[in-house]
Design brief:
Layout lengths: L1 E6 L8 E7 L4 E8 L6 H13 L6 E5 L4 H10 L5 E6 L5 E3 L4 E5 H13 L3 E3 L5 H13 E5 L5 E5 L5 H26 L1
Parallel strand pairs: 1-4, 3-8, 4-5, 5-7
Antiparallel strand pairs: 1-2, 2-3, 6-7, 9-10
């Protein structure tokens, strides 16, 4: 199974795109890139098409639909793609809005599979990834924080650093965690 995920940015944050190969044993990060700042949304959608089409067995596409991500979701849907759209929230519970087809996922739940994969050593970075992107991911991970604010809510994000690649990897792992049991059942019955 393969999951492509993107944290959409444009003016201040770059769009981060990851490709994750998923097996029962581990998650192999096979693709990692950031698009140049200012990349227009139609070009982002076109590029995501190219990345998805490069996966020989097909893939699930997950897009952060928070803020500027929604136009890219709309563009992809208009082109016949069916991305899993995720609105990252500060609290609440995970839920699919049947009217919009967009998932609401609290950041703490989105980040949980990433923390687990790192802790258990199940996330591997492929050696062929661009070194500059690998270093960016490592830097973002080391600067990522989690704390409880004065209102008792969990706050997460990058300190003095963007968290675009971290969010893209978290989106891919969140989707992989949900889809893996279904995928393994389909492989077992084939």
């Amino acid at each position: 199974m393969f999951v492509v995920a993107a944290d959409i940015g444009q003016a201040r944050d770059p769009t981060a795109i990851v490709g994750l190969e998923v097996t029962a044993e581990r998650f192999d990060l096979r693709h990692l890139e950031r698009l140049p700042l200012g990349t227009p949304y139609p070009l982002v959608a076109d590029h995501l098409d190219v990345v998805c089409d490069a996966v020989p067995s097909g893939c699930e596409l997950v897009i952060d639909a928070t803020g500027v991500g929604r136009p890219v979701v709309d563009l992809l849907r208009s082109k016949g793609r069916a991305p899993v759209a995720v609105l990252i929230t500060g609290s609440g519970r995970e839920a699919l809005n049947p009217d919009t087809g967009i998932w609401s996922v609290p950041k703490r739940l989105l980040m949980a599979p990433l923390g687990s994969a790192l802790e258990l050593g199940r996330l591997r970075l492929s050696p062929g990834l661009p070194p500059v992107e690998t270093e960016t991911l490592r830097r973002e991970l080391s600067g990522f924080f989690r704390e409880i604010n004065g209102h008792g809510h969990t706050v997460m994000g990058g300190k003095r650093e963007h968290d675009d690649t971290v969010i893209a990897v978290a989106l891919a792992l969140w989707r992989a965690q949900a889809a893996l049991p279904r995928f393994l059942r389909s492989v077992g019955s084939a």
